[in-house]
């Protein structure tokens, strides 16, 4: 007897379902793509319990007749191609004819559909791949497919699904992408009673961007339109002043199909590389239109990657288009402060350009003077910040601040036991260099201290001990919009964020009201930080509470710390260094960058070729 046998269709479909139907989001991707392929102008989606209990997709597309309805749920049944040659000219999102069969094999389906020209429609019920009933139906034009109890007959698969909010977030990401690539279609998306997305369907991409990402961002994005021979590029790019914590806002569509492409992603990152801070990423929504024949879409089970005929060419066109867009004269006009027409302000000293939050953050450190200094050394007359003369405080060597003695290669000369800790070289502030570095001398050499890193370390230690974290109430509460998937995470983590000082309230849909934020942050920094954190959560990179806490502390200390460009007087520098000396690790900032660099006397002698 032969050992090999052909699998029955149901088993074959269940196996296929393993490739196509991974989770509720993949079911929704297939159903929505079918609606779009059916020429729908309006698509309605509703999910319950992250799509695990119910998914309903209703469209106003061209529908199916009774025969097609039965065929549609069979494997390799498609109206989109006839022969293998057609594969090279695909203009639809689907073409393999296996999605509905795969979905039906692992769920309960209730479908109804009517073609415009037909008097009546058809209703069909399927359970685990077996048709339970078909009957005529008075349904409206278009198609409605309801999927219940996904994986009810595949418990091992169901067990591996995430909680409802995480599944909802994955679904939202899919819906957002499809909405962005189809601005002419009106998308309505509910999770239970919550409306998560509504796009106008008027064909204007900026309006869709506003629905997905919020109006604030949509207004600031730069439009890109570029045509080179047979490649057309359209969409939006962020100006360099807007950057995000992850690459999740860089999306590519090829002929209306969302794809992942690491080469194109790298190209975008490279163009922005020198324009935005390290570790930050732009927003880019790019629609690429090319001849269907010059791209192979049949190379990935979920059709998430494609193969270009001429990848280098496409890449070079995109590079040119993005560079062109970013070098347009209007690119950076919206953020330039109003400086009048004479441009005279350009020559004013730096101090004119300090942002208010630096001062606020700094005051915190300076205020400690009144707590620290008199107790530690009543003999030093340290004036309050307002009274502090801009320069030259009395700074006797013995009373100067100290740095811990574990500076690499530093041979500590323990002159006295300073109150800031034993074995610390006494230092005297020499001055500030380029409003960013403190120069200090000790017995054994010259020390250069990065003022931002030092303050960052001080704040990080303070916050991690749970002290000083608090919030300040906003006088004018801010409405902050998120994308649907981000909003999902925000709801999940709202209490944790509250512990860190973000007082948030769910306003409805994807909008939240921010009533308070961590102290030291000004409103725009606070909103940006919140957006970054939520994006990190949504990207799945920071999921456990510990990671999130660390990230929050890092961000809070970085945002709260004085920046380069902030002038400090000697007393301020003194306090900064004294506080730094008390931290857990004064030599590097919480990101791991060095804070203190030492040039020993021997180093200097060597440099001046004066070695004895
Ligand atoms: P594919 O999309 O690859 O053709 P599917 O299994 O997703 O395969 O769908 C099978 C067929 O069912 C489609 O080719 C299409 O003819 C029909 N169909 C599915 N969904 C719809 C819909 N919403 N409106 C009209 N026809 C549909
Ligand atoms: Mg399909």
Automatic annotation (TrEMBL):
GO MF term set: ATP binding; ATP hydrolysis activity; ATP-dependent DNA damage sensor activity; endonuclease activity; mismatched DNA binding
Gene3D superfamilies membership: 3.30.230.10, Histidine kinase-like ATPase, C-terminal domain, MutL, C-terminal domain, dimerisation subdomain, MutL, C-terminal domain, regulatory subdomain
DNA-binding found in the keyword field: no
Annotated signal peptide: none
GO CC annotation, single: mismatch repair complex
Coiled coil: none
GO BP term (any one): mismatch repair
PROSITE patterns: DNA_MISMATCH_REPAIR_1
Keywords: DNA damage, DNA repair, Endonuclease, Hydrolase, Nuclease
Pfam families recorded: DNA_mis_repair, HATPase_c_3, MutL_C
InterPro entries: DNA_mismatch_repair_CS, DNA_mismatch_repair_MutL, DNA_mismatch_S5_2-like, HATPase_C_sf, MutL/Mlh/PMS, MutL/Mlh/Pms-like, MutL_C, MutL_C_dimsub
Keyword Zinc-finger: no
Task performed by this protein: This protein is involved in the repair of mismatches in DNA. It is required for dam-dependent methyl-directed DNA mismatch repair. May act as a 'molecular matchmaker', a protein that promotes the formation of a stable complex between two or more DNA-binding proteins in an ATP-dependent manner without itself being part of a final effector complex.
Stated name of the protein: DNA mismatch repair protein MutL
Native organism: Metallumcola ferriviriculae
Gene name per UniProt: mutL
């Amino acid at each position: 007897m032969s050992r090999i046998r052909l699998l029955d269709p149901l088993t074959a479909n269940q196996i296929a379902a393993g490739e196509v139907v991974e989770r509720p989001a993949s079911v929704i991707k297939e159903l929505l793509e079918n609606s779009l392929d059916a020429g729908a102008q309006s698509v309605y989606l509703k999910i319950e319990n992250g799509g695990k209990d119910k998914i309903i997709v209703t469209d106003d597309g061209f529908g199916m007749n009774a025969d097609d309805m039965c065929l549609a749920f069979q494997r390799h049944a498609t109206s989109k191609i006839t022969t293998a040659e057609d594969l090279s000219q695909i203009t639809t999102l689907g073409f393999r004819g296996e999605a509905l069969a795969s979905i039906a094999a692992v769920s309960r389906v209730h479908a109804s559909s009517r073609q415009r020209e037909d008097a009546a429609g058809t209703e069909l019920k399927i359970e685990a791949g077996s048709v339970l009933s078909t009957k005529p139906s008075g349904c409206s034009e278009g198609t409605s497919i309801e999927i219940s109890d996904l994986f009810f007959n595949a418990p091992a698969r169901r067990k591996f699904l995430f909680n409802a909010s995480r599944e909802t977030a994955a679904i939202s990401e899919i819906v957002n992408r499809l909405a962005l690539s189809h601005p002419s279609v009106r998308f309505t998306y509910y999770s239970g009673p919550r409306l998560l997305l509504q796009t106008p369907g008027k064909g204007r991409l900026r309006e869709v961007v506003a629905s997905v990402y919020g109006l604030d961002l949509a207004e600031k994005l730069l439009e890109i339109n570029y045509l080179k021979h047979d490649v057309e590029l359209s969409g939006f790019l962020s100006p360099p002043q807007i950057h995000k914590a992850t690459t999740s806002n860089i999306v590519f569509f090829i002929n209306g199909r969302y794809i992942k492409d690491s080469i194109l992603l790298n190209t975008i990152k490279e163009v922005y590389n020198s324009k935005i801070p390290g570790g930050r990423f732009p927003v880019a929504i790019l629609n690429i239109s090319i001849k269907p024949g010059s791209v192979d879409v049949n190379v990935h089970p979920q059709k998430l990657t494609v193969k270009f005929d001429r990848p280098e060419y496409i890449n070079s066109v995109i590079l040119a288009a993005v560079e062109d867009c970013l070098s347009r004269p209007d690119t950076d006009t919206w953020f330039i402060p109003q400086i009048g027409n004479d441009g005279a302000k350009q020559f004013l000293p730096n101090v004119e350009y300090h942002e208010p939050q630096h001062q606020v953050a700094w005051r915190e450190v300076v205020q400690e003077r009144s707590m620290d200094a008199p107790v530690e050394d009543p003999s030093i007359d340290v004036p309050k910040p307002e009274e502090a003369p801009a320069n030259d405080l009395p700074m006797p060597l013995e009373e100067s601040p100290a740095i811990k003695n574990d500076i690499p290669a530093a041979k500590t000369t323990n002159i006295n036991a300073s109150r800031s800790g034993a074995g610390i070289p006494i230092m005297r502030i020499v001055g500030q260099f380029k409003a960013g570095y403190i120069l200090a001398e000790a017995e054994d050499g010259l020390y250069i201290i990065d003022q931002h890193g030092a303050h960052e370390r001080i704040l990080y230690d303070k916050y991690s001990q749970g002290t000083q974290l608090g919030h300040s109430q906003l006088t004018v509460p801010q409405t902050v919009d998120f994308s649907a998937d981000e909003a999902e995470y925000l709801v999940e983590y709202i209490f944790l964020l509250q512990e860190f000082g973000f007082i948030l309230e769910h306003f409805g849909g994807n909008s939240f009201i921010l009533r308070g934020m961590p102290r030291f942050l000004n409103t725009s920094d606070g909103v940006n930080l919140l957006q970054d954190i939520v994006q990190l959560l949504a990207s799945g990179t920071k999921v456990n509470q510990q990671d999130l806490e660390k990230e929050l502390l890092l961000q809070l200390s970085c945002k709260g710390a004085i920046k380069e460009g902030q002038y400090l007087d000697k007393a301020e520098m003194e306090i900064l260094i004294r506080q730094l000396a008390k931290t857990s690790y004064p030599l590097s900032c919480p990101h791991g960058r060095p804070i203190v660099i030492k040039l020993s006397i021997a180093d200097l002698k060597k440099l001046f070729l004066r070695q004895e």
